[in-house]
């Protein structure tokens, strides 16, 4: 979707099939609020709930006035300071859904006069809501058996209070880019394992590098062997698809400035390996590259926005299958930094591909590392689908991620990384095991990763519960890939760029 910005002062020139107007709960009782001048009067209500409660809607035809055919009044809950960016993201997204239902391909959303989050944040959020809500994954549909293709809302307008239209325009630009990045991650996530192979992720990274001007390096199995990446190579041993380690570099800061590093798990299909997963729901494990997809997409946005920092994006990518050469429970592998790991459960493969990637990144002397991975089912048990788990060695980075999460609506919530958890990884045979038993599964996975980040400030996001899902109660998401935490990563990098 393309989003442009308009001023309230220019409403007379607006030609839109649907104008979406926010309604604050409790403000005007059961009466429709007046339409902004010079939009005409309301006729023919199509639906009728004007409580202002979140998502409640009145759609009506407009009887007179220039260019606006219909108005949708959409409840945004209590207004004023309580009206935040996430409310406006959802408000704008509801406008897209209303347009889809009426087979309209464009929609305009009116920002409130004085949103609690400020006009720029509101304009950005509205643009994000529009772009995110318009996304669908149709690449693999031929249309066979469909009466008609679903409506794609192709253009959006964010209407800003007249006094702040310049700030709104810049913010709409940023919001459009980060939301387009997230949609890009969703496309990658949605592609099945037979399409989105490790080489497919590498090819995607190459086109991203080309498009926004990033440096790229892709390591294959030969260079992994030279690097001594025994853990990453062990995971890939059961598969016919070659692994890839994708390294993208954005040069937005001074020469020699230590980069910020983003690392994402790019496991393109996780069957569990010899410790095979149950059949039910296994198809969802095509989403096990969600962290990698978010990192590639975030790097696209970082390049596109010209962020003034050096930024690294690193994605280890492999399948986890059960071929005749597959790593077996009890096997001991040697990681790039020389530590030995007893592979108790081949399904705990994410930490094995990440540990060699993290160690490789540490060699590039970053200022800080944030990794994201669909790493443990325990993260879903712990936080459900409402927040990613965040853990790390640096309270500052963890705090920055939480704040960025609150601003973007891609929330994360902290778990402790006490030294004692490390003991659950003790092995009789090797330096440590790749699993720590049932208790605190998300934490012991992070404790494993911690062994590979040295002294670099580091935080880890476990996105197993948030990266994709069956829930579509958030109006800017659909069932399937959610693109989380693309916007969170971009926000964190931008927050560090000052
Ligand atoms: N990719 C899975 C984690 C996962 C589970 C993501 C459910 C999304 C939804 C990961 O590789 C895995 O299998 N983890 C195991 C670790 C265990 C063997 C210690 C798990 O969580 O069961
Ligand atoms: Mn697994
Ligand atoms: Zn996995």
Describe the structure.
The chain has 498 residues and is of the alpha/beta class. The protein has two domains: 2-160, 3-Layer(aba) Sandwich (Leucine Aminopeptidase, subunit E, domain 1), CATH 3.40.220; 184-496, 3-Layer(aba) Sandwich (Aminopeptidase). 32% of the residues lie in helices and 21% in strands. It contains twelve helices and 21 strands. The chain has helices spanning 85-101, 119-133, 165-190, 198-212, 221-227, 230-236, 290-305, 350-362, 377-383, 395-408, 441-450, 486-496, and strands spanning 2-7, 19-23, 42-45, 57-62, 70-75, 106-110, 155-160, 215-219, 244-251, 260-264, 266-270, 310-320, 332-334, 340-342, 368-373, 388-392, 412-414, 432-433, 458-462, 468-469, 480-481. It is elongated, with a radius of gyration of 24 Å. It starts with a strand and ends with a helix. The chain binds ligand BES, manganese (II) ion and zinc ion.
In short:
By secondary structure, this protein is α/β, with parallel strands linked by helices. The chain has helices at residues 85-101, 119-133, 165-190, 198-212, 221-227, 230-236, 290-305, 350-362, 377-383, 395-408, 441-450, 486-496, and strands at residues 2-7, 19-23, 42-45, 57-62, 70-75, 106-110, 155-160, 215-219, 244-251, 260-264, 266-270, 310-320, 332-334, 340-342, 368-373, 388-392, 412-414, 432-433, 458-462, 468-469, 480-481. The protein is 32% helix and 21% strand.
């Amino acid at each position: 979707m393309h989003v442009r910005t308009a001023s309230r002062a220019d409403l007379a020139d607006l030609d839109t099939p649907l104008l979406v107007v926010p309604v604050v709960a409790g403000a005007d009782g059961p009466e429709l609020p007046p339409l902004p001048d010079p939009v005409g009067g309301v006729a023919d209500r199509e639906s009728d709930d004007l409580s202002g409660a979140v998502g409640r809607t009145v759609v009506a035809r407009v009887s007179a006035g220039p260019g606006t055919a219909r108005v949708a009044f959409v409840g945004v809950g209590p207004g004023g300071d309580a009206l935040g960016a996430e409310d406006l993201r959802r408000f704008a997204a509801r406008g897209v859904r209303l347009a889809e239902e009426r087979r309209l391909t464009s929609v305009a959303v009116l920002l409130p006069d004085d949103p609690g989050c400020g006009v720029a944040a509101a304009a950005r959020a509205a643009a994000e809501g529009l772009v995110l809500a318009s996304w669908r994954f149709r690449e693999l549909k031929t249309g066979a058996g469909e009466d008609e293709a679903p409506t794609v809302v192709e253009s959006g307008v964010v209407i800003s209070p007249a006094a702040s239209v310049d700030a709104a325009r810049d913010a709409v630009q940023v919001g459009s880019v980060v939301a387009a990045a997230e949609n890009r991650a969703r496309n990658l996530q949605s592609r099945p394992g037979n399409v989105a192979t490790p080489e497919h992720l590498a090819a995607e990274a190459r086109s991203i590098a080309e498009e926004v001007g990033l440096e790229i390096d892709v390591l294959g199995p030969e260079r992994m062997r030279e690097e001594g990446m025994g853990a990453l190579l062990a995971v890939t041993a059961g598969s016919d698809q070659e692994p890839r380690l994708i390294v993208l570099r954005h040069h937005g800061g001074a020469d020699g400035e230590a980069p910020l590093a983003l690392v994402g798990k790019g496991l393109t299909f996780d069957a569990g390996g010899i410790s095979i997963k149950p059949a039910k729901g296994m198809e969802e494990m095509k989403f096990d590259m969600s962290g990698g997809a978010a990192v590639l997409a975030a790097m696209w946005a970082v390049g596109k926005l010209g962020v003034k920092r050096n930024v690294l994006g690193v994605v280890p990518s492999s399948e986890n299958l059960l071929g005749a050469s597959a790593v077996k429970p009890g096997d001991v592998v040697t990681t790039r930094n020389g530590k030995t790991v007893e592979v108790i459960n081949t399904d705990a493969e994410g930490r094995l591909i990440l540990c060699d990637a993290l160690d490789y990144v540490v060699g590039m002397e970053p200022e800080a590392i944030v990794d994201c991975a669909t790493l443990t089912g325990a993260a879903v048990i712990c936080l459900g689908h409402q927040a990613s788990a965040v853990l790390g060695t640096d309270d500052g980075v963890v705090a920055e991620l939480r704040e960025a999460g609150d601003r973007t609506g891609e929330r994360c919530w902290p778990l402790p990384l006490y030294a004692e958890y490390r003991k659950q990884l003790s092995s009789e045979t090797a330096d440590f095991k790749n699993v720590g038993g049932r208790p605190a599964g998300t934490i012991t996975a992070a404790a494993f990763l911690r062994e590979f980040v040295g002294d670099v400030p580091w935080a880890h996001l476990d996105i197993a519960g948030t990266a994709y899902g069956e829930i579509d109660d958030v109006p800017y998401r659909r069932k399937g890939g959610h693109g989380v935490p693309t916007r969170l990563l971009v926000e964190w990098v931008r927050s560090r760029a000052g």
